[in-house]
Design a protein that fits this description.
Blueprint: H1 3-22, H2 26-33, E1 40-43, E2 49-55, E3 61-69, H3 82-90, E4 93-96, H4 100-120, H5 132-141, H6 144-150, H7 155-168, H8 178-188, E5 193-195, H9 199-206, H10 211-223, H11 230-247, H12 250-255, H13 263-276, E6 278-285, H14 295-301, E7 306-307, H15 326-349
Parallel strand pairs: 1-7, 3-6, 4-5, 4-6
Antiparallel strand pairs: 1-2, 2-3
Length: 350
């Protein structure tokens, strides 16, 4: 046996011995034994569950579980794996897209923003800026009463209504949302839920841009769709996305999702939980954790994690546009319509 081969065998045996005596995995043992001190990112066997573990910059041991969720579904999502629930219960902190306190304020804050949107529109009417063809597409997707309400607001409300229309008729239901399941679970366990982003940040992502920029986005959406097939195609896309999620294959999910500009900010929040040490359980939309610009991709780019089994793959074809969370979209569109109706009633009573 050559000297080089003997050395390789010896190092391998040392790693196995270290793992056995330290109660850690073989990959972590090799990492710590040979100086690879970058925390490990591993895809777990459970559906859309990842784990980051290691030692932070202060030498504190930490574990961050990331459970990718989906905002609609059916009974096939349940029951959840026992290991997921065990990690949830054993965590020092629980983190969702929004904190529990922010989620409670969502409807009221959105209604207030809708009222403000009416003022910011400054009397402009969305439909007056649309072509005859674009207006006809609106009428095929939304009822006239809804259009009359939303046309007095900023265009982002009309965009949300377009997004929520097919989802309202989908076979998948927000009643099976994993996010809502974990929120109820945390409430039953009397646990606090922290947020990856603030309510203000999420509302800003919904209503971002100037009136003219929002109008351009609305026109691009209308120009790019076949109104006759819109609901059917959107329902089909939602079903394909759901089946990809159920398969538990991040690569399949990535092919059907698009990049989200919020991921970089979320990566910074994950970094802050790493620095706290202890165990953190994060649950948030699965699409944020796959792709070239995923939260994990940013963490890896910054040298904060090292993937044991790569979960970021290169895309060779265009991605499908991913809409906002159906729960958020439904609430937002509803608040837009309700808010505008109240404004119309107020103005009519004066």
């Amino acid at each position: 046996m050559s000297v080089r081969l003997r050395l390789a065998v010896l190092l391998g045996l040392l790693a196995v011995l270290f793992a056995a005596t330290s109660c850690v995995s073989l990959s972590e043992a090799a990492s710590r034994l040979f100086g690879y001190d970058t925390p490990l990112l591993e895809k777990e066997e459970e559906r859309m569950l990842w784990r980051i573990r290691g030692y932070n910059s202060q030498g504190k041991k930490f574990t961050v579980y990331i459970q990718g969720t989906i905002h609609v579904g059916d009974e096939r999502l349940y029951p959840l794996e026992k290991r997921v629930l065990k990690a949830f219960r054993a965590s020092d902190r629980i983190v969702a897209e929004l904190s529990a306190s922010d989620l409670e304020k969502f409807s009221d804050e959105l209604r207030e923003r809708t009222t403000h949107s009416f003022s910011k529109a400054e009397g402009r009417v969305v439909t007056k800026n649309l072509s005859a063809e674009e207006k006809e597409k609106l009428r095929l997707i939304l009822d006239q009463e809804t259009i009359d309400f939303l046309t007095l607001l900023e265009p982002w409300c009309m965009i949300l209504a377009l997004c929520s229309s097919p989802q309202a008729q989908s076979e998948l239901s927000a009643d099976f949302s994993l996010d809502e399941y974990f929120a109820k679970f945390a409430k039953e366990e009397n646990r606090e839920i922290l947020g990856l982003e603030t309510l203000q940040e999420q509302l800003d992502s919904i209503s971002c841009g100037t009136y003219d920029e929002q109008l351009v986005q609305l026109k691009e959406i209308l120009d790019g769709i076949d109104a006759q097939k819109f609901k059917e195609e959107m329902n089909s896309a939602a079903k394909n996305l759901y089946e990809a999620y159920l398969s538990g294959d991040p690569k399949k999910l990535e092919e059907l999702t698009s990049e989200d500009e919020r991921n970089e900010k979320w990566a910074k929040r994950i970094q802050s939980y790493i620095e706290m040490g202890g165990t953190t359980f994060v649950y948030a939309g699965a699409a944020h954790w796959v792709g070239e610009k995923s939260v994990f991709a940013y963490l890896e780019e910054w040298g904060l994690v090292r993937q044991v089994s790569p979960t970021v793959v290169r895309r060779s074809s265009p991605t499908v546009v991913r809409l906002s969370s159906p729960t958020v979209v439904r609430q937002a569109a509803g608040s837009c319509a309700a808010g505008s109706q109240e404004l119309l009633q107020d103005s009519g009573s004066k």
